[in-house]
# Entry
Amino acid sequence: AQSVTQPDIHITVSEGASLELRCNYSYGATPYLFWYVQSPGQGLQLLLKYFSGDTLVQGIKGFEAEFKRSQSSFNLRKPSVHWSDAAEYFCAVGATDTGGFKTIFGAGTRLFVKA
Amino acid sequence: DAGVTQSPTHLIKTRGQQVTLRCSPISGHKSVSWYQQVLGQGPQFIFQYYEKEERGRGNFPDRFSARQFPNYSSELNVNALLLGDSALYLCASSLLGGGTSEQFFGPGTRLTVL
# Structure
């Protein structure tokens, strides 16, 4: 069965420091991969996505992610974190099985940014 | 242009009751997906509809059902409510079905079951 694991429940980084959020997935075929951000009162917003091609994808707000098939990973990175990046981050995989298409989300990583 | 809209914003029901949640997609979008997000967890996929047909179903009991109307709006129905159904219910619209079209999420309906 398809699954998404985000090993870190929460992460704290200093403003201006670099960030890496981890994501591992389980899916037999080439997956569609996504990162979303959820802020209070803002709803879920797509940061970036990977379908095929270049394994390093650029997203909005200065985020990027790298797809590593050998490690079944799709880690999110940002070189310099801003206080406004504090939010919940979700990795997701789009997959097709006997039930049709579905998007499976990880449990999320809460990012705290300290001044 | 308006984004995805959901109604109501909040809802309180008691166990055993039935509830209907509504979603209006972005104009021009033909696909709607429903998710359940329990506090402290990631969204869980319930259904995807495209062109009024079910295109995907998650691991939810038959108490959960949905439909999509000719104007592409959608309703999610939950029968025989349980305490565990308390959650934020999210609707997302996309231009196409499947996974290649970006999903735009609504603000959600907060359901509390007492």
In short: Chain A touches chain B at residues 4, 32, 43-46, 49, 51, 90, 92, 94-96, 99-108 (CB under 8 Å).
